[in-house]
Amino acid sequence: MLDIRYEAMPSGAIAVIAQVRAKTGKEQELRSATLPLVSQVRSEPDNVLYFLHEDRGQPGHFVFYEIFASREAFDAHNGTEHVQRWFKLLPDLAEGGSGGHTPDDP
Fold first, then answer.
1. pTM value surpassing 0.70
2. Is residue 41 within 8 Å of 50, Cβ to Cβ?
3. Which of the listed residues 14, 39, 85, 106 has the most CB atoms within 10 Å of its CB?
4. Which residues contact 69 (CB under 8 A, 6 or more apart)?
């Protein structure tokens, strides 16, 4: 069970909600490419929370809930080898890439 306390959250922490939808017929391939990210991202030093959800009503629709210690940590996360490798797979596996939102976005 996660034990995340708001009072222990870094003051510069950034929350991200992102989603990706598999192209028709690519649901299993996207799932296989995406699931390993969970342990890889959780092992990043400034990752506070990383949770992946697949919509049971729409297989292949993944929603990511992420918290990083800072904007810099989030940027570093996006530059990691495992995330870059996953991003490169998206044009073949997903509709429109990944859509993400942070509270700082306009």
1. yes
2. yes
3. 14
4. 10, 12, 13, 46, 47, 48
